[in-house]
Specification:
The complex is a heterodimer of chains A (about 325) and B (about 250).
Chain A lengths: L9 E5 L4 H4 L14 E9 L22 H14 L3 E5 L8 H18 L14 H8 L12 E2 L12 E6 L2 E8 L9 H4 L3 E2 L2 H15 L4 E6 L12 H7 L5 E3 L11 E4 L5 E5 L7 E12 L11 E4 L3
Parallel strand pairs in A: 2-3, 6-8, 8-9, 9-11
Antiparallel strand pairs in A: 1-13, 2-12, 4-7, 5-6, 10-11
Helix pairs in contact in A: 2-3, 3-4
Chain B lengths: L1 H18 L3 E13 L9 H18 L2 E5 L11 H20 L8 E3 L12 E4 H7 L5 E8 H13 L5 E2 L1 E6 L2 E7 L2 E2 L5 E7 H4 L6 H4 L3 E8 H14 L12 E3 L1
Parallel strand pairs in B: 3-10, 7-12
Antiparallel strand pairs in B: 2-4, 3-6, 5-10, 5-11, 7-8, 8-9
Classes of the chains: A alpha/beta (about 325), B alpha+beta (about 250).
């Protein structure tokens, strides 16, 4: 992993035991060598907007960057190093390059499937060719598109999207739910038809409790297309971070936010939650590694996401 | 000897695994945002193989040169080379279409919503593919009729956003409102009816442009905005006209 391109790494750790005290190296993959540690690596993108290939066209800021072809190579490399690696997307997969205009969502979902995505969620641009556009492209998706707050029961998309999904990696359960933005005003009325929008915050509270307590997930991840933050009090990932208490990671989209590093916020319970977004067009790949220690005895310790920020990296 | 000891270890380990369900406790989190750049890694050849046949179909059409830009044209507020050129061509093409179709209307204002302009135009040759990037949406050109009062409300909306892609009008942004409004060189007349050419997304109130939904009338065109841009650029190119940056102070801030 030494040769990996790394912007900046930030180490977050449990407040009880310091990294130095554990005698661990800064390399989470090396932890795998020991059966006592498991690292779940969550990689994520958002707002790919059909950027299958890297950007081109003469803009010095974007040329040569991004693209699914490179995200895919990166993901496969990480997954070889650590099989407990997941790849998620936070929506707006469609629309943005001629690939979409010519081949619609079908090609995009086919390429994302080949890249190995584990799950995605629905962005507003997924509706650009109406409900039918989504319907027609879905057979090409070899991964679940998770949506917890759109009610499609009165549309042709009824039962097409799971409300949540659990991924099991080396005994660790990762529960995922998905939140979409309010479509009214953003998407033409006829394009979303009878899709009902359910309050994202209420949905998040319901989902995190269900995944944590009923399904006993070790990690709860939210794929959100709500947007990072607004000047108004409109619901956003930052609002969600402060109002939820069991979600460990909010993977965002929509606002195309470029973050130097993931944001660590205090949730409603005073514990820490990570909020991240990965620019757009595949120009950034977010990576959050959760390392778990195996407890020898049968007693089940309450999992904590009580993470202290440590900037020593 | 060493091997049998290893086996013993392995068996013990397996027994341990089988005897109790392991419990894991979250210990730490490492996070980073990785820049996906040229030097990051090569492309995934498996993925390239998958999209190559599609790319070939695209490229045939996309590489056609349809215009030439004297300078790089980017979007900016309150006005910019790109927002102005797009609004002006929409007004021009709208008027042309209205005449061809004998609609008996003359659009006096055009609006090409800022958020719908998805990229810039580089200096030099402009190809079809660039227009697809610029205007990826399948939006249609439409005409809406607004009262003078509604037109003022629309300009106030633009003013509240700090400027936008507007053609045929001139105004000053003052305390978030549009002041000193001129349409076609004349002072805005609140008693008059005006025709405006835009896209169906905006006409249907996209991006909370509520006043457009309260319009008097709407006429569609079944012409895609993208095709309108392409044909306008091709026409100029035929006449050996290049794209230039035209900043005329149509929207200024006070």
């Amino acid at each position: 992993m030494g040769g990996l391109p790394v912007n900046r790494r930030r180490f977050l750790r449990n407040g009880l035991i310091g990294v130095a005290g554990l005698g661990l190296s800064a390399n989470p993959v090396s932890l795998l060598a020991s059966e006592d540690y498991i690292t779940i690596s969550v990689l994520h993108t958002n707002d790919i907007h059909c950027h299958i290939e890297p950007f081109s066209g003469g803009n010095q800021y974007t040329d040569g960057k991004g693209g699914l072809a490179r995200i895919s190579a990166l993901f496969k490399k990480f997954k070889t190093e650590n099989p407990n690696t997941l790849l998620f997307d936070a929506g707006d997969m469609f629309q943005g390059t001629p690939y979409y205009n010519y081949f619609k969502g079908e090609l995009m979902l086919k390429v994302m499937t080949a890249a190995g995505y584990d799950a995605g969620t629905i962005g507003n641009h997924e509706f650009d060719d109406g409900l039918e556009g989504i319907f027609n492209s879905l057979p090409s998706a070899g991964f679940p598109i998770i949506s917890s707050n759109y009610d499609f029961s009165d549309t042709i998309l009824n039962k097409k999207f799971p409300e949540w999904k659990i991924f099991k990696k080396s005994g660790i359960k990762i529960g995922v739910y998905g939140l979409g933005i309010e479509l009214k005003g953003l998407v033409g009325d006829k394009n979303f038809g009878n899709t009902k929008y359910i309050d994202p915050l209420q949905t998040a509270l319901k989902m995190e409790s269900f995944l944590k307590y009923d399904k006993k997930c070790d990690l709860v991840v939210c794929l959100s297309h709500l947007g990072l933050k607004y000047k108004s009090n409109k619901v956003s990932d930052m609002v969600l971070a402060g109002e939820t208490s069991l979600t460990d990671l909010i993977i965002g989209g929509h606002t195309h936010s470029f973050l130097e590093e993931p944001i660590v916020e205090k949730n409603k319970a005073g514990k820490q939650v990570i909020v991240n977004q990965a620019s757009w067009g595949g120009m950034v790949l977010g990576r959050i590694d959760f390392t778990f220690e195996r407890e020898g005895k049968n007693k089940r310790l309450a999992l904590t996401n009580n993470i202290n920020i440590n900037n020593e990296a | 000897m060493v091997r049998s000891f290893s086996y013993l270890l392995l068996i013990t380990y397996l027994l341990l695994i089988l005897s109790c369900k392991p419990v894991y406790v979250s210990k730490r989190v490492d996070s980073e945002n990785i820049s996906v750049k040229k030097d990051t890694l090569v492309l995934d050849s498996q993925l390239v193989q998958l999209y190559l046949p599609y790319k070939e179909i695209l490229e045939k059409d996309m590489h056609r040169v349809i215009s030439y830009a004297e300078v790089e044209l980017v979007k900016n507020k309150p006005e910019s080379g790109l927002t102005n050129i797009l609004a002006d061509l929409l007004l021009e093409e709208g008027e042309k279409y209205a005449n061809e179709q004998n609609l008996n209307i003359k659009p006096e204002v055009s609006y090409f919503n800022y958020g719908g302009i998805r990229t810039f135009l580089p200096q030099g040759e402009i190809r079809v593919g660039k227009i697809f990037e610029l205007m990826p949406f399948e939006n249609e050109m439409v005409f809406i009729q607004l009262s003078g009062n509604q037109l003022q409300q629309f300009f106030d909306y633009v003013a509240s956003k700090g400027g936008d892609s507007v053609g045929g009008a001139k105004f000053v942004i003052s305390s978030g409102k549009a002041k000193k409004v001129f349409v076609g060189g004349k002072k805005l007349n609140t008693d008059k009816m005006y025709w405006l050419v835009t896209n169906d997304y905006s006409a249907n109130g996209g991006d909370n442009l509520k006043v457009f939904t309260e319009r008097q009338e709407l006429i569609g065109s079944s012409k895609k905005i993208r095709d309108v841009i392409i044909s306008n650029f091709e026409e100029r190119h035929k006449n050996e006209l290049v794209l230039t940056e035209k900043l005329d102070g149509r929207i200024t801030s006070e």
